[in-house]
Design goal:
By secondary structure, this protein is of the alpha+beta class. The protein contains seven helices and seven strands, in the order H-E-E-H-E-E-E-E-H-E-H-H-H-H. Strands 4-3-7-1-2-6-5 form a seven-stranded antiparallel sheet. Helix 4 packs parallel to helix 7 and helix 5 (about 120-130) crosses helix 7 (about 150-165).
């Protein structure tokens, strides 16, 4: 079967961007410089948010990150100390990364509790969808940090009530007013 040019274009648009696995080290305490050959395809496709798999010593973690393009032309991602600790990584260690296109709706995966509350409250969901992508991610991260499922539900309910009351100050979203 011979594919016509238009068929090839359709196929490449449906394929998700994915890099080969490559070796890196920490650039400073909490970031990694991504080699140009691996970052360039994502940058050229306009992908500022990526999904990352970090591998070290038989362990791996997956996380979402912003692919930062610096004025110097280098690309960098934030790699928190918590992630380093999870992999038992030390500052001098080399480890592997692999980059993937982020296909998530918000640039981060929301916890089940957050999704359930948002699905049950259409008004709050509608207001939430009007927020900027960064504010959406911020609240999803904030609620996801709570360890207890009940606390995540309570904080999401509090957030939705505050949104519906017209509170748009991020500092007040998770506080009872």
């Amino acid at each position: 079967m011979v594919l016509q040019k238009t068929d090839k274009n359709l196929l490449t648009k449906k394929l998700k961007l994915k890099s080969k696995s490559f070796e890196v080290a920490l650039a400073d305490k909490q970031s990694v410089i991504i080699p140009l050959e691996f970052a360039k395809p994502f940058h050229e496709a306009g992908k500022k948010r990526i999904k990352v798999r970090a591998l070290f010593d038989g362990k791996h973690i997956d996380f979402h990150a912003a692919l930062k393009h610096e004025k110097t032309g280098t690309f960098r991602i934030y790699f928190s100390r918590a992630k380093q600790k999870e992999l038992n990584l030390f500052p001098n260690d080399y480890f592997e990364l692999q980059l993937f296109e982020d296909t998530s709706k918000y640039g981060v995966e929301p916890c089940e509790e957050f999704e359930a509350v948002m699905h049950s409250d259409y008004d709050a969901y509608t207001i939430f969808e009007t927020l900027t992508p960064g504010k959406k991610r911020s609240i999803i991260y904030a609620i996801g940090r709570y360890k207890s499922s009940q606390t995540r539900i309570d904080k999401t309910l509090l957030f939705t009530e505050n949104l519906k009351r017209g509170i748009f100050d991020q500092k007040l979203w998770l506080k009872e007013n």
